[in-house]
TrEMBL record:
PANTHER family reported in the protein's UniProt record: CYTOCHROME P450 YJIB-RELATED, P450, PUTATIVE (EUROFUNG)-RELATED
Entry keyword DNA-binding: no
Position of the signal peptide: none
Family in the record: Belongs to the cytochrome P450 family.
Native source species: Mycolicibacterium komossense
Name of this chain's protein: Cytochrome P450
Coiled coil: none
Keyword terms of this UniProt record: Heme, Iron, Metal-binding, Monooxygenase, Oxidoreductase
Domain of life: Bacteria
Amino acid sequence: MTASGLAEPQGLLLRLLDPANRANPYPLYDDIRARGPLVFPDGNLVVFSRYADCDEVFRHPSSASDRLKSTVAQRAIAAGEPARPFGQPGFLFLDPPDHTRLRKLAQKAFAPRVIKALEGEVATLVEAMLDDIAAAGRFDVITDLAYPLPVAVICRLLGVPIEDEPEFGRASALLAQSLDPFVTFTGELPAGFEERLKAGKWLREYLRGLIDRRRSDPRDDLISGLIAAEEDGDQLTEEEIVATCNLLLIAGHETTVNLIANGILAMLQNRRHWTALAADPQRAAAIVEETLRYDPPVQLAGRVAAEELTIGGTTVPKGDNMMLLLAAAQRDPAIYAEADVFDPERANLRHLGFGHGAHFCLGAPLARLEARIAFTALTARFPQARLGSEPVYKPNVTLRGLSSLDVTV
Protein backbone atom coordinates (compact mmCIF):
# COMPACT_ATOMS: atom_id res chain seq x y z
CA MET A 1 0.00 0.00 0.00
CA THR A 2 1.18 3.52 -0.76
CA ALA A 3 0.94 5.80 2.27
CA SER A 4 -1.21 8.90 1.88
CA GLY A 5 0.57 12.24 1.60
CA LEU A 6 1.04 13.59 5.11
CA ALA A 7 0.03 17.23 4.82
CA GLU A 8 -3.66 16.87 4.13
CA PRO A 9 -4.29 13.90 6.47
CA GLN A 10 -2.48 15.72 9.29
CA GLY A 11 -4.72 18.71 8.65
CA LEU A 12 -7.80 16.51 8.93
CA LEU A 13 -6.71 15.26 12.35
CA LEU A 14 -6.00 18.79 13.57
CA ARG A 15 -9.47 19.81 12.43
CA LEU A 16 -10.85 16.94 14.48
CA LEU A 17 -9.24 18.46 17.59
CA ASP A 18 -10.61 21.92 16.80
CA PRO A 19 -13.46 22.82 19.22
CA ALA A 20 -15.23 24.56 16.33
CA ASN A 21 -16.06 21.11 14.92
CA ARG A 22 -17.44 19.68 18.15
CA ALA A 23 -21.09 20.52 17.47
CA ASN A 24 -21.07 18.55 14.20
CA PRO A 25 -17.95 16.52 13.45
CA TYR A 26 -19.75 14.19 11.05
CA PRO A 27 -18.95 15.99 7.75
CA LEU A 28 -15.29 15.86 8.81
CA TYR A 29 -15.61 12.16 9.59
CA ASP A 30 -17.04 11.70 6.09
CA ASP A 31 -13.96 13.38 4.60
CA ILE A 32 -11.61 11.20 6.63
CA ARG A 33 -13.49 7.99 5.84
CA ALA A 34 -13.53 8.82 2.11
CA ARG A 35 -9.71 8.84 2.11
CA GLY A 36 -9.49 5.39 3.63
CA PRO A 37 -6.90 4.60 6.33
CA LEU A 38 -4.59 7.52 7.11
CA VAL A 39 -1.01 6.31 7.49
CA PHE A 40 1.56 8.40 9.37
CA PRO A 41 4.82 6.38 9.33
CA ASP A 42 6.83 9.16 11.02
CA GLY A 43 4.28 9.30 13.82
CA ASN A 44 3.85 5.52 14.17
CA LEU A 45 0.12 5.98 13.66
CA VAL A 46 -2.64 4.59 11.43
CA VAL A 47 -6.16 6.04 11.61
CA PHE A 48 -9.04 3.75 10.60
CA SER A 49 -12.51 5.11 9.94
CA ARG A 50 -14.39 2.47 7.93
CA TYR A 51 -16.66 0.05 9.74
CA ALA A 52 -15.03 -3.12 8.41
CA ASP A 53 -11.56 -1.91 9.39
CA CYS A 54 -12.53 -0.80 12.90
CA ASP A 55 -14.41 -4.05 13.49
CA GLU A 56 -11.40 -6.06 12.32
CA VAL A 57 -9.03 -4.15 14.61
CA PHE A 58 -11.27 -4.83 17.61
CA ARG A 59 -11.28 -8.55 16.80
CA HIS A 60 -7.65 -9.01 15.77
CA PRO A 61 -5.59 -11.12 18.24
CA SER A 62 -2.57 -8.81 17.83
CA SER A 63 -4.58 -5.67 18.61
CA ALA A 64 -3.50 -4.53 22.09
CA SER A 65 -4.96 -2.01 24.54
CA ASP A 66 -1.89 -1.38 26.70
CA ARG A 67 -0.24 1.83 25.48
CA LEU A 68 3.13 0.70 26.91
CA LYS A 69 3.39 -1.68 23.96
CA SER A 70 3.59 1.24 21.54
CA THR A 71 6.83 2.46 20.00
CA VAL A 72 5.94 6.04 20.97
CA ALA A 73 5.48 5.10 24.63
CA GLN A 74 8.74 3.15 24.71
CA ARG A 75 10.61 6.14 23.28
CA ALA A 76 9.08 8.40 25.93
CA ILE A 77 10.04 6.00 28.72
CA ALA A 78 13.60 5.78 27.36
CA ALA A 79 13.72 9.59 27.44
CA GLY A 80 12.89 9.54 31.16
CA GLU A 81 9.16 10.24 31.06
CA PRO A 82 6.93 8.32 33.51
CA ALA A 83 5.51 5.11 32.09
CA ARG A 84 2.02 5.75 33.45
CA PRO A 85 1.63 9.39 34.50
CA PHE A 86 -1.96 8.83 35.67
CA GLY A 87 -1.08 5.71 37.69
CA GLN A 88 -2.04 2.10 37.08
CA PRO A 89 -4.76 1.97 34.41
CA GLY A 90 -8.08 0.21 34.69
CA PHE A 91 -8.46 -3.16 32.99
CA LEU A 92 -9.92 -1.47 29.88
CA PHE A 93 -6.37 -0.33 29.09
CA LEU A 94 -4.66 -3.64 29.82
CA ASP A 95 -4.27 -6.89 27.89
CA PRO A 96 -4.51 -10.58 28.85
CA PRO A 97 -3.62 -12.07 31.24
CA ASP A 98 -3.99 -8.96 33.45
CA HIS A 99 -7.14 -7.77 31.67
CA THR A 100 -8.74 -11.22 31.87
CA ARG A 101 -8.01 -11.61 35.58
CA LEU A 102 -9.16 -8.14 36.64
CA ARG A 103 -12.27 -8.12 34.47
CA LYS A 104 -13.31 -11.54 35.77
CA LEU A 105 -13.20 -10.28 39.34
CA ALA A 106 -14.88 -6.94 38.59
CA GLN A 107 -17.67 -8.32 36.42
CA LYS A 108 -19.31 -9.97 39.43
CA ALA A 109 -20.59 -6.52 40.34
CA PHE A 110 -22.27 -6.30 36.92
CA ALA A 111 -23.92 -9.72 36.92
CA PRO A 112 -27.39 -9.78 35.30
CA ARG A 113 -29.11 -10.23 38.67
CA VAL A 114 -27.35 -7.12 40.03
CA ILE A 115 -28.40 -4.98 37.06
CA LYS A 116 -31.95 -6.36 37.17
CA ALA A 117 -32.18 -5.50 40.86
CA LEU A 118 -31.36 -1.87 40.04
CA GLU A 119 -34.28 -1.47 37.62
CA GLY A 120 -36.83 -0.36 40.22
CA GLU A 121 -34.39 2.06 41.84
CA VAL A 122 -33.51 3.63 38.47
CA ALA A 123 -37.21 4.04 37.64
CA THR A 124 -37.86 5.71 41.01
CA LEU A 125 -34.95 8.11 40.50
CA VAL A 126 -36.19 9.04 37.03
CA GLU A 127 -39.76 9.68 38.20
CA ALA A 128 -38.55 11.97 40.98
CA MET A 129 -36.51 13.98 38.46
CA LEU A 130 -39.49 14.19 36.10
CA ASP A 131 -41.67 15.48 38.95
CA ASP A 132 -39.24 18.39 39.39
CA ILE A 133 -39.20 18.98 35.63
CA ALA A 134 -43.00 19.05 35.47
CA ALA A 135 -43.12 21.64 38.22
CA ALA A 136 -40.61 23.86 36.40
CA GLY A 137 -42.16 23.49 32.94
CA ARG A 138 -38.73 23.20 31.33
CA PHE A 139 -35.42 21.50 32.00
CA ASP A 140 -31.79 21.33 31.04
CA VAL A 141 -31.17 17.85 29.69
CA ILE A 142 -27.76 17.57 31.34
CA THR A 143 -28.18 19.15 34.76
CA ASP A 144 -31.72 17.93 35.41
CA LEU A 145 -31.61 14.35 34.08
CA ALA A 146 -28.74 12.99 31.98
CA TYR A 147 -26.04 13.81 34.55
CA PRO A 148 -27.66 13.21 37.95
CA LEU A 149 -29.18 9.84 37.00
CA PRO A 150 -25.96 7.96 36.09
CA VAL A 151 -24.14 9.68 38.95
CA ALA A 152 -26.69 8.47 41.49
CA VAL A 153 -26.60 4.94 40.06
CA ILE A 154 -22.81 4.62 39.92
CA CYS A 155 -22.52 6.05 43.45
CA ARG A 156 -25.02 3.46 44.64
CA LEU A 157 -23.18 0.67 42.82
CA LEU A 158 -19.68 1.64 43.91
CA GLY A 159 -20.62 2.72 47.40
CA VAL A 160 -19.42 6.31 46.91
CA PRO A 161 -21.24 8.83 49.17
CA ILE A 162 -23.44 10.99 46.95
CA GLU A 163 -22.54 14.07 49.00
CA ASP A 164 -18.95 13.73 47.72
CA GLU A 165 -20.14 13.87 44.10
CA PRO A 166 -19.29 17.54 43.34
CA GLU A 167 -15.60 16.94 44.07
CA PHE A 168 -15.15 13.60 42.33
CA GLY A 169 -17.47 14.75 39.54
CA ARG A 170 -15.12 17.63 38.79
CA ALA A 171 -12.09 15.30 38.87
CA SER A 172 -13.89 12.79 36.68
CA ALA A 173 -14.72 15.43 34.07
CA LEU A 174 -11.09 16.55 33.90
CA LEU A 175 -9.84 12.99 33.58
CA ALA A 176 -12.30 12.30 30.78
CA GLN A 177 -10.50 14.99 28.78
CA SER A 178 -7.23 13.07 29.20
CA LEU A 179 -8.67 10.44 26.84
CA ASP A 180 -8.52 12.92 23.95
CA PRO A 181 -5.78 12.01 21.43
CA PHE A 182 -3.80 15.27 21.51
CA VAL A 183 -0.45 13.56 22.07
CA THR A 184 -1.20 10.86 19.48
CA PHE A 185 -2.24 13.39 16.83
CA THR A 186 0.22 16.23 17.57
CA GLY A 187 3.08 14.73 19.60
CA GLU A 188 2.60 17.48 22.20
CA LEU A 189 1.00 17.65 25.64
CA PRO A 190 -2.32 19.55 25.62
CA ALA A 191 -3.13 22.63 27.64
CA GLY A 192 -4.44 21.67 31.08
CA PHE A 193 -2.37 18.48 31.34
CA GLU A 194 -1.00 19.36 34.80
CA GLU A 195 -4.49 20.10 36.10
CA ARG A 196 -5.63 16.66 34.92
CA LEU A 197 -2.66 15.02 36.61
CA LYS A 198 -3.58 16.77 39.85
CA ALA A 199 -7.22 15.64 39.49
CA GLY A 200 -6.10 12.05 38.88
CA LYS A 201 -3.92 12.08 42.01
CA TRP A 202 -6.76 13.53 44.10
CA LEU A 203 -9.26 10.95 42.89
CA ARG A 204 -6.93 8.04 43.59
CA GLU A 205 -6.27 9.32 47.12
CA TYR A 206 -10.01 9.75 47.66
CA LEU A 207 -10.63 6.16 46.55
CA ARG A 208 -7.86 4.83 48.80
CA GLY A 209 -9.55 6.47 51.77
CA LEU A 210 -12.87 4.97 50.79
CA ILE A 211 -11.29 1.52 50.44
CA ASP A 212 -9.80 1.82 53.93
CA ARG A 213 -13.26 2.59 55.34
CA ARG A 214 -14.81 -0.36 53.53
CA ARG A 215 -12.17 -2.76 54.83
CA SER A 216 -13.32 -2.05 58.38
CA ASP A 217 -16.98 -1.48 57.50
CA PRO A 218 -17.92 -3.57 54.44
CA ARG A 219 -21.28 -2.90 52.80
CA ASP A 220 -23.34 -4.14 49.90
CA ASP A 221 -21.41 -2.21 47.24
CA LEU A 222 -18.82 -2.72 44.53
CA ILE A 223 -15.82 -1.50 46.52
CA SER A 224 -16.59 -3.95 49.34
CA GLY A 225 -17.14 -6.63 46.71
CA LEU A 226 -13.78 -5.95 45.05
CA ILE A 227 -12.02 -6.13 48.40
CA ALA A 228 -13.60 -9.50 49.06
CA ALA A 229 -13.51 -10.77 45.47
CA GLU A 230 -11.49 -13.88 44.95
CA GLU A 231 -11.08 -16.20 42.01
CA ASP A 232 -8.82 -19.26 42.22
CA GLY A 233 -7.10 -17.82 45.28
CA ASP A 234 -6.40 -14.50 43.57
CA GLN A 235 -7.38 -11.14 45.08
CA LEU A 236 -7.04 -7.59 43.82
CA THR A 237 -4.32 -5.38 45.25
CA GLU A 238 -5.27 -1.95 46.57
CA GLU A 239 -3.86 -0.30 43.41
CA GLU A 240 -5.93 -2.64 41.25
CA ILE A 241 -9.09 -1.80 43.21
CA VAL A 242 -8.33 1.92 42.91
CA ALA A 243 -7.70 1.62 39.17
CA THR A 244 -10.89 -0.40 38.65
CA CYS A 245 -13.07 2.04 40.62
CA ASN A 246 -11.38 4.98 38.90
CA LEU A 247 -12.27 3.50 35.50
CA LEU A 248 -15.86 2.67 36.42
CA LEU A 249 -16.45 6.02 38.11
CA ILE A 250 -15.31 8.00 35.06
CA ALA A 251 -17.12 5.70 32.65
CA GLY A 252 -20.26 5.86 34.78
CA HIS A 253 -20.13 9.65 34.81
CA GLU A 254 -19.39 10.46 31.21
CA THR A 255 -20.55 7.80 28.78
CA THR A 256 -24.07 7.21 30.09
CA VAL A 257 -24.60 10.96 30.44
CA ASN A 258 -23.73 11.30 26.74
CA LEU A 259 -25.90 8.36 25.72
CA ILE A 260 -29.01 9.73 27.44
CA ALA A 261 -28.47 13.31 26.25
CA ASN A 262 -27.63 12.32 22.67
CA GLY A 263 -30.72 10.13 22.45
CA ILE A 264 -32.99 12.89 23.75
CA LEU A 265 -31.53 15.37 21.26
CA ALA A 266 -31.86 12.95 18.34
CA MET A 267 -35.51 12.22 19.14
CA LEU A 268 -36.40 15.90 19.57
CA GLN A 269 -34.75 16.67 16.24
CA ASN A 270 -36.71 13.78 14.70
CA ARG A 271 -40.04 14.26 16.44
CA ARG A 272 -41.87 11.27 15.01
CA HIS A 273 -39.61 8.99 17.07
CA TRP A 274 -40.36 10.97 20.26
CA THR A 275 -44.10 10.67 19.59
CA ALA A 276 -43.85 7.01 18.63
CA LEU A 277 -41.95 6.12 21.82
CA ALA A 278 -44.45 8.04 23.95
CA ALA A 279 -47.17 5.80 22.50
CA ASP A 280 -45.20 2.53 22.54
CA PRO A 281 -42.52 1.97 25.23
CA GLN A 282 -41.38 -1.20 23.44
CA ARG A 283 -39.51 1.07 21.02
CA ALA A 284 -37.07 2.23 23.71
CA ALA A 285 -34.45 -0.49 23.20
CA ALA A 286 -34.15 0.33 19.49
CA ILE A 287 -33.84 4.05 20.30
CA VAL A 288 -30.91 3.23 22.60
CA GLU A 289 -29.14 1.12 19.98
CA GLU A 290 -29.64 3.65 17.18
CA THR A 291 -28.31 6.42 19.43
CA LEU A 292 -25.21 4.31 20.05
CA ARG A 293 -24.76 4.07 16.28
CA TYR A 294 -25.86 7.51 15.13
CA ASP A 295 -24.23 9.72 17.81
CA PRO A 296 -22.09 7.49 20.02
CA PRO A 297 -20.96 8.56 23.52
CA VAL A 298 -17.46 7.24 22.74
CA GLN A 299 -16.32 8.58 19.38
CA LEU A 300 -12.75 7.25 19.25
CA ALA A 301 -10.83 4.23 20.50
CA GLY A 302 -7.13 3.46 20.51
CA ARG A 303 -5.24 0.22 20.00
CA VAL A 304 -1.58 -0.81 19.56
CA ALA A 305 -0.20 -3.38 17.14
CA ALA A 306 1.38 -5.91 19.51
CA GLU A 307 2.75 -7.64 16.40
CA GLU A 308 2.74 -6.56 12.78
CA LEU A 309 -0.78 -6.97 11.41
CA THR A 310 -2.76 -6.22 8.28
CA ILE A 311 -6.18 -4.59 8.38
CA GLY A 312 -8.17 -4.41 5.13
CA GLY A 313 -4.98 -4.34 3.06
CA THR A 314 -3.16 -1.82 5.29
CA THR A 315 -0.07 -3.15 7.07
CA VAL A 316 0.50 -1.81 10.58
CA PRO A 317 4.05 -2.33 11.91
CA LYS A 318 4.58 -3.74 15.38
CA GLY A 319 4.35 -1.01 18.01
CA ASP A 320 2.37 1.45 15.91
CA ASN A 321 -0.72 3.12 17.37
CA MET A 322 -4.08 2.58 15.73
CA MET A 323 -6.83 5.16 16.16
CA LEU A 324 -10.38 3.95 15.43
CA LEU A 325 -12.86 6.67 14.53
CA LEU A 326 -15.95 4.81 15.69
CA ALA A 327 -18.32 7.70 15.02
CA ALA A 328 -17.13 7.72 11.40
CA ALA A 329 -17.36 3.94 11.08
CA GLN A 330 -20.95 3.93 12.28
CA ARG A 331 -22.02 6.23 9.47
CA ASP A 332 -20.23 4.18 6.83
CA PRO A 333 -22.52 4.02 3.75
CA ALA A 334 -21.00 0.65 2.89
CA ILE A 335 -22.78 -0.74 5.96
CA TYR A 336 -25.79 1.50 6.55
CA ALA A 337 -28.43 2.77 4.15
CA GLU A 338 -29.05 6.49 4.79
CA ALA A 339 -26.29 6.43 7.39
CA ASP A 340 -26.79 10.08 8.37
CA VAL A 341 -30.46 9.53 9.23
CA PHE A 342 -31.52 8.73 12.81
CA ASP A 343 -33.69 5.67 12.20
CA PRO A 344 -34.37 3.27 15.11
CA GLU A 345 -36.52 1.22 12.73
CA ARG A 346 -33.63 0.26 10.44
CA ALA A 347 -33.50 -3.46 9.81
CA ASN A 348 -29.81 -4.09 10.45
CA LEU A 349 -29.13 -2.20 13.66
CA ARG A 350 -25.55 -3.08 14.61
CA HIS A 351 -22.79 -0.82 15.93
CA LEU A 352 -19.43 -0.64 17.65
CA GLY A 353 -20.63 1.67 20.41
CA PHE A 354 -19.58 -0.73 23.18
CA GLY A 355 -16.56 -2.12 21.35
CA HIS A 356 -16.14 -5.77 20.45
CA GLY A 357 -14.32 -8.84 21.63
CA ALA A 358 -12.54 -9.20 24.98
CA HIS A 359 -12.82 -5.50 25.79
CA PHE A 360 -16.57 -5.23 25.15
CA CYS A 361 -17.92 -2.65 27.61
CA LEU A 362 -18.54 -4.22 31.02
CA GLY A 363 -21.15 -1.59 31.88
CA ALA A 364 -23.17 -1.97 28.67
CA PRO A 365 -26.19 -3.62 30.36
CA LEU A 366 -26.37 -0.88 32.99
CA ALA A 367 -26.05 1.94 30.44
CA ARG A 368 -28.79 0.37 28.30
CA LEU A 369 -31.05 0.00 31.33
CA GLU A 370 -30.65 3.62 32.45
CA ALA A 371 -31.15 5.04 28.95
CA ARG A 372 -34.16 2.82 28.21
CA ILE A 373 -35.94 3.80 31.43
CA ALA A 374 -35.10 7.51 31.00
CA PHE A 375 -36.32 7.62 27.37
CA THR A 376 -39.51 5.72 28.11
CA ALA A 377 -40.52 7.77 31.16
CA LEU A 378 -39.56 11.12 29.65
CA THR A 379 -41.50 10.71 26.40
CA ALA A 380 -44.56 9.26 28.19
CA ARG A 381 -44.68 12.11 30.72
CA PHE A 382 -43.95 14.91 28.23
CA PRO A 383 -45.17 13.89 24.75
CA GLN A 384 -45.27 17.56 23.63
CA ALA A 385 -41.70 18.43 24.69
CA ARG A 386 -39.78 20.76 22.36
CA LEU A 387 -36.22 21.97 22.03
CA GLY A 388 -35.82 25.33 23.71
CA SER A 389 -32.26 26.11 22.63
CA GLU A 390 -29.41 25.01 20.40
CA PRO A 391 -27.22 22.28 21.89
CA VAL A 392 -23.95 23.35 23.53
CA TYR A 393 -21.08 20.86 23.59
CA LYS A 394 -18.21 20.10 25.95
CA PRO A 395 -14.68 20.40 24.54
CA ASN A 396 -14.16 16.63 24.72
CA VAL A 397 -13.18 14.82 21.52
CA THR A 398 -13.24 11.16 22.59
CA LEU A 399 -16.18 11.33 25.00
CA ARG A 400 -18.00 13.95 22.94
CA GLY A 401 -21.20 15.13 24.57
CA LEU A 402 -23.50 18.01 25.44
CA SER A 403 -22.82 20.50 28.21
CA SER A 404 -26.35 21.96 28.06
CA LEU A 405 -29.61 21.63 26.16
CA ASP A 406 -32.79 23.46 27.12
CA VAL A 407 -36.13 21.69 26.60
CA THR A 408 -39.65 22.98 27.26
CA VAL A 409 -42.28 20.49 28.35
